[in-house]
Batch of 3 targets.
Target 1
Amino acid sequence: MTAMTSPPPALAQATQAFLSSDHGLLIGGARQTGQAGSTFETFDPATGQVIARVAEGRAEDVDLAVKAARKAFEGGWAGTMPIEREKLMWRLAELIEAHGDTLAELETLNNGMPLFLSKFSVSSAADMLRYMAGWASKMAGETLNPSTPGEWHAFTLREPVGVVGAIIPWNAPLNMAVWKLAPALATGCTIILKPAEQTPLTALFLGQLVQEAGFPEGVVNIITGFGETAGAALAQHPDVDKIAFTGSTGTGKKIAQYATGNMKRVSLELGGKSPMIVFPDAPLEKAIPGLTMGAFVNSGQVCAAGTRLFVHASIFDQVMESVAAQASKFKLGHGLDPQTTLGPLVSRQQHDRVADFVRSGLADGCAAYMGASSPDSAGYFYEPTLLVNTARDMRVVREEIFGPVLCATPFEDEDLSAIAQLANDTEYGLAASIWTQNISIAHKLSKMIKAGSVGVNTHILNDAVMPFGGFKQSGWGREKGREVLDLYTQIKSVAVSL
Ligand code: NAI
Ligand code: MG
């Protein structure tokens, strides 16, 4: 049983000052209350307490934000000198770091993640902006060599797609915001960002930093609000050119349908049920902490989390014992307590969803090697849970749980295609990891796995250069890396008859 750590220390003054300020929408460079004047509460999931009220944006606010974004796009942002956009993005990265302590506290307070993770989120958000900033001046079209008779100057232009609507989830609020903002800003798009209703605070703080950095008004707009109202209005809006969504596969399917109204571009980064495959020669001193973090980091609220663990039968018992021992070292508690290494789930609803899944797994015949319970707390904590005796048709094995629940299965096959079949036996295809020292197995299996990211002796490498996105029902398109430029730009081919 993992011990709960003590209550959190007091918040820094800057964090308190932000919490007690007004949390309006950011539209066209101005903070405003929603047209309907309504607000909603946001919570600390470690205590269940209300920490702030924020403006509730609805369709009419989305419409104002789209008008502001359109005006900024047509009014010169798309034509700014690339180096100018690059400088602004660097300034924003620096402001993120300068206010890193506040951002980290807000992220932890609102999402629940331990401070070590929210601090990492701050530095990776800044790095993502710097990485993408470089593309502003480096992306370009190409010259082409037609075979059509005549003399030609033929080339492509890479142009910004226009007004982008971004809808993001609650599991990594700051990073998800920056994963959308950075490519939009680099390519000369303008953006309306809708954070998840559970975690609006770091996006709102980021909005302040965007203004302080000096981006022209209307380039970045932030609408806090709910999915079925604000989110749907954004995805359906006839003057939004592209929608970028991260979240559940179910909501992603709705977004894709909404987008058909004006055939807006769509990119979707959706759910996962990612396998981790452990061979008898795996470097266990690396694999045990790697598998444990792969499954449980951020309490398993990670789209690429390793949730199906396949271990060669010859080392299955040893790996179960070691993963359980490693996971029992987690300290559950308030994320602001520096000792905490595992925070709560984001909401009561998410907690209950996870508990229901585990109950269904146990009812279906699997056994809890560890966990499968909630500690006594007003917060939404759940113990890291390792399920064995799992079978392929169980809901716990098939569906995305989004909590600290790892399903383990032994395999005896030596044949790689049989192993790949186990790994690929899912409607998802976001990530996978292979743990072995055999380079031939590592490379062959990497090719056979149907997933957008594969790690060898690491679960995933979260780095701005690595394209990220899903095969199958895990989504459309690749974020990060050079590939994200394709999502935020469109190509125009120009032929000049000389
Ligand atoms: P969700 O996918 O419904 O919500 C994500 C974002 O979409 C939020 O900003 C939300 O306001 C917005 N949204 C919801 N319905 C919408 C609609 N009809 N139109 C436009 N936007 C909409 O996820 P939710 O409901 O918070 O969580 C449900 C489950 O989804 C979780 O238990 C988890 O299993 C999974 N999930 C997966 C994520 C991933 O990255 N793979 C992220 C968040 C949730
Ligand atoms: Mg939902």
Target 2
Amino acid sequence: MKIAFIGLGNMGGPMALNLQKAGHALSAFDLSAEACRKFGADGLPIAASAAAAVEGADVVISMLPASAHVEGLYLGSDGLLGRIAPGALVIDSSTIAAATSRKVAEAGAAHGIAVIDAPVSGGTGGAIAGTLTFMVGGSEADLERARPVLEKMGSNIFHAGAAGAGQTAKICNNMLLGILMIGTSEAIALGVANGLDPKVLSEIMRRSSGGNWALEKYNPLPGVMDTAPASKGYAGGFGTDLMLKDLGLAQENAAAVRASTPLGGLARNLYAAHSLGGNGALDFSSVIKLVQARQG
Ligand code: NAD
């Protein structure tokens, strides 16, 4: 089976490497020459363009930042849907608007190409370890076609519903994650301002009723957890601007269905302020800087 992989960023690069390790023939591409150089050096075969990468591919996977990138890649007169062989399967793992996923799936069907949305959770650690959670929108049959490929990159695969449903599940999850990271940051900052040792406090809360994913795997304070982006200058990981995009998608969706999401709205505004402060490219856990008490 030949797999084309488009988008070799913090998530896509390690996901593509896992597919190659599992023995699949890959052809990869990213618009960033630096990303191509980095993952080419790790052994990924790099194509000259996205169109060249999908030539003869049975499965095409994309892992791009946002809706506009996915529309630009697949739709329009130059779009990949005109290049991919009919009968092939497209798996878009980017987190984008559910409406865009449905649009691409409909356009794919018109070309005889099955398209599923399969956004992920688990962070860069999960991408590297191959333990991501996939939330799939599309038909059962297309999910079963994708399953052997998804299993090489993740350990949990859920069928959320029809086209776009994977995206809806993903923004619900990320709205919760965005809120949790701010709450966790506030609690740690409050303890530290009172002289508590952040490692001790984090461990107390991790094992108490405040325990959550940020405390388990992604502590926002530098030095508490060696593997977390906080301890690596907030580099890599999940960018503040990507979290801001996801919280924006959640708010748009909430307005469309008239849902009440006050904490989601507040979280979006806090990440927006953090991004305006010049932190958009830093990992989203750097939001702790907004709530840290001034020392001295
Ligand atoms: P990233 O910015 O690190 O990588 C995206 C890559 O896509 C970049 O290398 C960029 O050059 C490339 N790209 C953009 N347009 C392209 C095009 N038309 N053709 C080829 N390459 C193109 O982002 P990421 O952190 O890898 O995230 C990717 C997606 O996964 C986003 O939708 C994000 O919300 C989602 N996500 C990220 C994480 C995380 O922890 N980083 C976790 C879950 C989901």
Target 3
Amino acid sequence: MPMNTTNFPIESLRAESTPFYYYDLHLLDATLDKMKESSSFPGFHIHYAVKANSNPEILKRIAASGIGADTVSLGEIRAAIAAGFPAAKIVFAGVGKTDEEIAAAIEYEIGCFNAESDEEVGVIEEIAKSLGKKAPVALRINPEIDAHTHHYITTGLAENKFGIAMSLMPDVVEHCVNSEWIEFKGFHFHIGSQITDMTPYRILCEKINILQEEYPDLAIPTINVGGGLGIDYDNPEDHPIPDFDEFFNIFKNNLHLRPSQQLHFELGRALVAQCGTLITRVTFVKKGVNKQFVIVDGGMNALLRPALYQAHHKIENITSESEKTEVYDVAGPICESSDVFGENVQLPVTHRGDLIAIRSAGAYGEAMASSYNSRPIPASKFSR
Ligand code: PLP
């Protein structure tokens, strides 16, 4: 029996040229439906973090669900608009927005800039003035919370490049509220990614409550708590949809929103990771001295996460007929020692030509693919 723990249409996948991303659009829809149901509290609004996956089909599907988009470049703003997200539901974050990007975002009349420094606020103000249009700006505050995730994807600590330090914040708030060309929208936070323990989010709520108490007279129309909700990379079939109820209830129960204040979220991974799989083909099964390697035709150019931050993805051989298993290191063809998808992976006895599924690859997979070693960017296929 092939070890096909999901419902991959193996025969049609076998006919495709590899590597490619395979997206289960039914799971994407079910995830969006559950997310909407779990977040249906007054004032709660979700923005999809486009950086997680900007495949046009995926973007269109998400735009059609009615949520907004969180972007970090002009390219993402354009992709979001092309996919059908209304400009008013687009927020624009990022520590290094260029003048061109700022001007274009003002012209598009996006919903909000999430500004990350006083200097940036000054530049947005200057460009808004030159265009004769007021710019909506929220301030990204660094709440100094350890999200207990990988150090490359934790973003809310004092030494991170992101956000405005709490101690520097009062002056930047003053700058915004006194500016003729800025409409102050509120505060933005994002403490990290792949967060599965809800404690850091509860602490974030407490910090925001204190912050709001410190500014009783300041109008703060919006609080944006960013994204970061993690997924189960070990057991994607047991947890295809993250626990959105637990996540949104943390905010519902701990954050003291003011009357008619809006609460924004920016979820990326939680919405798209589980619906995507990298399908790659075994080129060789190579015997080493103490190990054996399954060499596949997709490498870190197709899926960078393991090489970039030691990310773990479940790996399956979806075509082997063998009842017996063996232990392999699964590696790509790229000329880098870090081009390894998994070490000591137990797989059914694997042969040249078998299809390997690298699961939970819908977020930060295709979006980070490159043509390193002059290899093509993987194609994308969809379940319909
Ligand atoms: N918002 C901001 C500001 C981010 O930097 C990120 C990710 O880096 C996200 C949202 C989305 O994070 P996630 O995909 O973990 O939900």
